[in-house]
Amino acid sequence: MSEGRHVAIIGAGAVGVISAIEALREGHRVTLIDAGEPGGEQAASYGNAGWLSSHSVIPPAEPGLWKKVPGYLMDPLGPLAIRWSYLPKALPWLVKYLLSGWTEARVEKTAFALRDLLKDAPLLHKKLAEEAGVPELVERNGVMHVFPSRGNFDSNLGWRLRKKVGVEWMELNADEMRQREPDLHPRYTFGVVVEEAGRCRDPGAYVAALAQHALASGAKLVHARATGLKLSGNKLVAVLTETGEIACDAAVVAAGARSKQLTASVGDPLPLETERGYHVMIENPESGPRSSMMASDVSMVVNWTDKGLRAAGTVEIAGLEAAPNWKRAEILRNNLFSMFPKLPKDIPDSRIKTWFGHRPSMPDGLPCIGHARASRDIVYAFGHGHVGLVGSARTGRLVAQLLSGKQPEIPLAPFAPTRFL
Question: Distance between CA 220 and CA 33 in Å, rounded?
Answer without folding.
Answer: 9
